[in-house]
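re: ur question from earlier - yeah i can do the single chain one, its not a big deal. heres the input i used so u can compare w yours
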Amino acid sequence: MMDLVERAQPGPLLPRTIDLGTYLGVRDGRALVALAGTRMRLPGFTEISAVCTDAEHRGLGLAKVLVGALVDEILDRGEVACLHAVSTNTPAIRLYEALGFTIRREMDFALLASS
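and the output i got, formated as tokens:
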């Protein structure tokens, strides 16, 4: 999983992030080639996180399948699926809009790391 994240760069993801929610993946043989999961949960909302596909497997609809499965699970709980993307990541934003997501608001984020 960390190898795919390193190659695809979906945003900050640490090895124990998968402990925070449900993560789904697609393999080609033994290699993980697509990933998406859930992370933060607030009352009524669940964040979809770490959506990424290996460059050689993009355009096959893998992200659509993974995000769709997560959205179905979230909606079944009566919650709203949400996610975030860096404004310069226009391919991701186009994908999310094609999957039915809309821009709700723009926010400033700070990424903090311990020293």
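The chain is about 25% helix and 25% strand. not sure if urs matches, ping me
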